[in-house]
Fold each of these.
Amino acid sequence: MRAFDLIKAIALSAVVLSATAGCGILPKEAADAQSQSRGAGQQGPPAVEVAIARTGKIRTEPEYTGTTLPLQEVSLRAQVEGRILKLLVDVGDRVKQGQVLAQQDDTILRTALNQEQAELAALKAEVARARNQVSNARARVEQVRLEFQQAQSDSQRQQQLVREGAVAEQAAEQARTNAQSAAKVLKATEEEVRTEQQAVAAASDRVNAQQAAIAQAQEQLSYANIRSPIDGVVTQKLTEQGNFLQANGEVLRLGDFRRVKVNVEISELALANLRVGQTVRVRLDAFPDRTFTGKVSRISPAADRTARLVPVEVIIPNDSGRIGSGLLARVSFESNAASRVVIPQTAVVEETEEQVSQKLAKSLPPSEAKGQNSRLPTPDSRLPNTATVFVINGEKVTARSVKLGERLDGRVEILSGLQPGERFVARSGRPLKNGETVRLSVLSESQQQES
């Protein structure tokens, strides 16, 4: 019985082992090896997202808001009173310097000019009469001078005859008296000439004054045609045709939009980095797809005493004339900081110095690694704040040691070790190894996208 039982047990064990092998149950070592082989076959090369290194600035410059204004704005006012007969432009019309934009009733002004011109004609006639009087007085002077010369000759001749005893003393005395009388008459007529000349000068002064009055009246008449003092655009119409305007009444407002200005207020702490002529970037909500380049034209010397804000004026070219007044503008001033390569924080693998040194040692060929330990960076000689970035080289990745700069909002500056235009791994599904083969995800950038 015992021999029979032993044979039965052996046969039963053989059946069980055969069944177990048929059902795929293997020893632990074989199962583990098979499992690892299947896992490796299913995983394959890791998928990575590749990006292209570009330069930029880690910090976004603050934006200051302001409102667009024309470079020059003019309030066009009536200079004389009168009814508006014609209003020749409307809002939005472009105008040229000297162009007539409105016309006032000039009837009263023209009547006043005619009166002034008539007064001038009367004064000119008065001058002519005064000059004629001068001519007549000069003629009398010449006649009296001749009479005086004749009387003086007669007196001298009579005195000679008296000395010779040819005539009586009484005749000589009479001749002397006549000569003295002629001298007095000559003096009086010469004084009359001077008086008439003064009358001519006074009349001439009145003519000059009247001519100035006429010029003023003509200028007043010209004000009835209201002209544009600038090249610009009509921004507002403040009266209508037919209205009566007093002197200084506002008619239109004009703006010169060949250049546009934006006034912003900046903190006194940012004042040290600003200068007149500095280039600025301006974004307008009205044109979201465009960025305009302007310049700082004026920095106020006085800050607000309460808010400590400094007014700054920025000028933007507007050759196309599309930028109008009252648009919201966002101004950012260019920083003096240099542009550097900026990459996502996810692309950086930060390691200890010992790990980096070991990786650099392993990357050397065996023939060069021997005796080259002195070439490897030591903790004292390594640049601070270093990390690793994986650069794409064909279908493989190469570990690159880089020096890190400032970090902000998930981005980091690369001070050295990565050049603009190089392709690097921005994200990976699992940790990478130097020289490992990878496959690019559909989110990866290509060289065509860069160009």
Amino acid sequence: DAGISIATGTDAGNPLTLHGPAIYAEMEAMQKAGMTPMQVIVSSTAVAARAMGHEKRAGTIEKGKDADLVLVAGDPSADVANFRKVRWVVRSGVVRSIDDLHALAQNPQK
């Protein structure tokens, strides 16, 4: 309400705070604390990019910016818990299903 920017982040890497799943818990905690799902999404994208000094190349979907995306099977603007339902990832122009990513994690030589 005071106009202070909040960037999403985690303590991933600490004991019992796993890289990957920790971000879901962080976003859900932000929503539970009173932020709207859209405020959490902006904090996790545009505000986080700005906090890291990367706002000219990332954080929003615009011409000329990196466009790494996740496609989920639910509406994260209704509930950020839907980010746990990743189905597709677009990274550097390559589209992969979650099943492909699981297979690659099991056998990274492919």
Amino acid sequence: MPTLKFGVNVSTAAGPESDPVGQSRIAELLDFDFVSASDHPSGRDPSYETWTLLTSIAAATTRIHVASRVLSIPFRSPALLAKMAESLDRLSDGRFILGLGAGATDDELKSFGLAVPSPKEKIEGLTDALHVIRGMWSEPVFTYKGKMHRTDAAKMEPKPAHRIPIWLGTFGDRALAITGQHADGWIPSHGYAPFNKLPAMRQKVLNAAEAAGRAPDEITCALNVEIAVTKHVDPNLDLIAGPVNTVVARLGELIAMGFTTFNFMPIQPQSADQVERIANEVIPALRSQVTSSV
């Protein structure tokens, strides 16, 4: 029987009525495994910077994990990111999940005065970042010369007390291969990865892992899912919405594909009510369904 894990997205909005830290405390009380926050620092709407927000959430909770969904590599030096991740993981007693992406928002990069990598350079940058981060976490002195990122006799202490999981939000063939070769988890978004293409994409990740000499089951197959418990079924296959039994059945199809971790993104409005319904109605029914199918 697969071990199922469930997370929930918290908004990075910094408006007067927003309370992502409070949302995270509620998620912990409702027994979610992790909370996540997206990384979009540019924009007209008031928002928190993702890393600062996750740090605040970790300080205000005791059990629940915190995940970046997903940090855009072009915004941050991978070497410094390795240090930041080790510190947050240590200060949270090992509760950090480092979600990374190659960088999809070119307008944000431009607006912050940063260079906009080509699609090829984004993948090269993501590959370099994985080598740099893992190298900084494991080598006493680390030198790396990549196509986009490098280090020169870099020293970083302390080293992580355990293997900090790195999950990648990837979609293209080359990026999927990199995920299988180097990452601990794959976390695409349902919709960006259409329902009928998910099995083939997942298989590319697992094939790349096996070709790299890794056990495919080492990789957590997670999925960002927009979800709503409603009276009526929504025909949009990229949104899982409907009565509890319909939602559970749709999620069951994804579990049958090999996904064992879900990051729920409740549809507004009434997301607080949605989070409680997911925790109290959807997740228990889903666990029961999986147990009874064994």
